[in-house]
Amino acid sequence: MAEVSVFSLVTGICVGLSAGYLGSLMVLKKMALVGDALSHVALPGLALGILLGFNPFLGAFAFLFGSAAIIWRIERATKLSIETIVGALFTLALAAGILMIPEPELLEALFGDITNVGLTDTMVALVVSLIAILSTKAIYKKIVLGMISEELAKSTGLDVDRINLLYLLLVSLTVAIGVRIVGTLLVGFLVVVPAATAKNVSSNLFGYSVLSSILGSVSSSSGVLLSGFLDLPSGPLMVLSGISIFLTAVVARSLRTRFFG
Amino acid sequence: MSRLARESTTDYILEVSDLTVKLKDQTILDNVSFKLKRGTTLAIVGPNGAGKTVLFRALLNLVPYKGKIEWKERVKIGYVPQRVSIGDIPISVQEFLSFKKPSGMGVCLGTQECLSLVGLDSERLSNRELRVLSGGQLQRVLIAWAIADRPNVLLFDEPTAGVDLDSEEAIYEMLNGLERENQMTVLLISHDIHVIRDYSEYMLALNRSVIYYGGSEQIADPSLLQKIYGSSTLLKTRKERE
């Protein structure tokens, strides 16, 4: 059994909480795959960090942040769906990242490694998660209102476009810290699966968003703990644990519907 | 109070002059001018693509326009759009109404008060999800949203589209009551001759530009219908259409 560090556990919980919370909006906006695809845009940034010797998180964040702004601009100019734009960008970024990252580090960039997390990483994850959650909380209702009716939202004076940009930037921030612990290939899971599970059993928005955050942190922390017990990489274990909760919720709901109507 | 008596005691709440809206180089509204008296109901009619919804958007300042739209001071507008997409958003009625922020220094009505004003049982419905409501209930909730911060002007874009006939009747009765009791000015887009005749005092017929503006009783005039729709039989009551 490998040792589980407190730093890994705290980082996992922070990332799970923020990814679950922001992901709850992403699933409602029918952008479930955007978080997943967006994470690949981090690869060239990670590569630059590794090659030039600065913190790869900063590189990932810079690329994600820039991409979010570009996506927002193209979406406004062309009215193409965000999924389409991200789809085009992510393949380019993935190809560039794979060509740029030295082979030994490629595996870590793709699948993450939470066992190497230290105090600084944990503090970054804590602060970034807090900023992402609090900022998203401030615009949560506005985003949902914009989803229900953009006209209605605008008629109350909301600048829907700017709020969407802010949200995309916050998603970038969350994905950037998620990449560090589960890697670019699996970070989409943290954004999508906890929210999908919560949506299946929630009857109001508050319960849905809170449950999504809790499930995100439960999935990520159980992945970290299991990796200590089983001496296996934490990223895939987080995914397996999150998917198990999702399937349990689906079965529980269908049983409840079948027997209690 | 008769309409004429009311006209003499009320002033104009809205003045629109030479309103022109172009979207993607296409003229949607061309030199539209009209005035609206406080506390009256104006029905906006016209064929599809006539610019009715765009007129509302211009009145709400949601699209760029040329010309002048002048709302009198202290106007507070409530708006019910033609379509909302609740989809599978797990949001309760209470949560939705709590999204409404009062404009200016006003205070929003509570959920219970809002729902009872639109004839809904708040105890039964406030915790229910929007996505499971019937078309009529959802429409009433949207109206409750619109009146939550006590507006003095209401804009309704086909407020009963997708609602069954009985609910439609009830919704218009309710709107009429709100207008009378709160001295509200109502602008509504409708395709229903019965609604226009029975629930509005004035009518603005649009087809990019103003074809007719005056008393709504003229809606029964076949020559006017011919001018608006190109056929005197296109505008019918909903019962006739169904």
How would you summarize the topology of this molecule?
The complex is a heterodimer of chains A (about 260) and B (about 240).
Chain A: H1 6-28, H2 32-40, H3 42-52, H4 56-78, H5 82-100, H6 103-111, H7 119-148, H8 150-155, H9 160-201, H10 205-230, H11 234-260
Helix pairs in contact in A: 1-7, 1-9, 1-10, 2-5, 2-9, 3-4, 3-5, 4-5, 4-9, 6-9, 7-9, 9-10, 9-11, 10-11
Chain B: H1 3-9, E1 12-23, E2 26-37, E3 41-45, H2 52-59, E4 66-71, E5 77-80, H3 93-98, H4 111-117, H5 122-125, H6 135-147, E6 153-157, H7 165-182, E7 185-189, H8 193-199, E8 202-207, E9 209-215, H9 222-229, H10 238-241
Parallel strand pairs in B: 3-7, 3-8, 5-6, 6-7
Antiparallel strand pairs in B: 1-2, 1-4, 8-9
User: Helix tally of chain B?
Assistant: 10
Under CATH at level 1, the class of chain A stands as Mainly Alpha
Tell me the total number of β-strands of chain A. 0
What pattern of helices and strands is seen along the backbone of chain B? HEEEHEEHHHHEHEHEEHH
CATH first level of the domain at 1-75 and 190-242 in chain B: Alpha Beta
Percent of residues in beta strands of chain A: under 5%
CATH homologous superfamily identity of the domain at 1-75 and 190-242 in chain B: P-loop containing nucleotide triphosphate hydrolases
Q: What is the number of E strands of chain B?
A: 9
Biggest pleated sheet of chain A: none
Please give the alpha-carbon distance between the first and last residues of chain B: 35 Å
Radius of gyration of chain A: 18 Å
Helix content of chain A: over 70%
**Assembly level:** heterodimer
Q: Which fold name is given in CATH as the topology of the domain at 1-75 and 190-242 in chain B?
A: Rossmann fold
What radius of gyration of chain B results from the CA coordinates? 18 Å
CATH structural architecture of chain A: Orthogonal Bundle
Examine the secondary-structure arrangement and name the CATH architecture of the domain at 1-75 and 190-242 in chain B: 3-Layer(aba) Sandwich
What count of helical segments of chain A does DSSP give?
A: 11
